[in-house]
# Entry
Amino acid sequence: MLLYLSKQLMREIETKAEESYPHECCGALLGKDGAGKREVLDVFPLVNRREDSPRNRFAITPEDFCAAEKAASDRGLELIGWYHSHPDHPALPSEYDREHAWPWYSYIIVSVADRKPGEMKSWRLADDRARFELEPIEVRFSSSAVSPAR
Amino acid sequence: MAVKVVIPTPLRPYAGKQDSVEFDARTVGEALSRLTTKYEELRKHLYTDDGKIRSFVNVYLNDEDIRYLQKENTQTKDGDTISIVPSIAGGFASPAASGANR
# Structure
C-alpha cells in the first residue's frame, strides 16, 4: 500500500504537532481508499482527551470519532486513518499504539523535537495484530484522484 | 428476534465486506458471539485473548453505551441496532517493543 499526502496537508499535521508540543496532537485523516493506494484529501484536527498524560498519550473519544466520520461523509470522503505526534520520540509505533489499533486504518506518526517536526511515517496494523507495517508516504505537491475500490 | 450489528469500515474485510449483519439474539453478548463465530477473523480485533471486549472498543445498543446498561448481558429486542465504535488511542512508551516492521 502507498499513502498519498499533499505537501500542504503534511505541513498542516506538522503545524499541529509544533503547536501542541510538548503534548501529543491528534486528528483524523479523511480521503479516498483505492486498490493498493489511498490518498489523504483533508485532515480533521481533534482535541487530545488524555489530560492526565498528554505528553506521551493521546485519546480520541467515541464522540470525536463520530464527528470525524461525519466530517468525512459531509465532504464525500472516507475516514481512512489517524495522525498523532510523538514529542521528543521517533515516529515509531509503540506497544501501546499496537494494542489500541485496528487494521485498515493508516496511522501517521510525526516526531517532534524541541517544537521542530521531524520524521513523518505512516503505519498499518497487520491482520494478525502482531506488528505494524510501514506504509510508504508519497508526498504530492497537488492532490490527485485515487479511484475508490468500491 | 433480529438484531442488526453495524460493522465499522476497518473490520468489514473480516466480515465478508458487509456493512451490517443481522442475527437472532436475546442479548448484546449473544449477538457479538454469533458475529465472531460466523466471522472468526473478527474476534481478535474485538476481544482480548482472555475473551474480554478490548478496552478501546465501545459497543452501543441503539445510542446507549452498553457499559451503562448491563454490558454484554444487555437484553435486545427485535429491530435493535448494535454499533461498534473505537476510541482511538496511542502514544509512545516503549517503541522497541512495538514489533514495528520497517
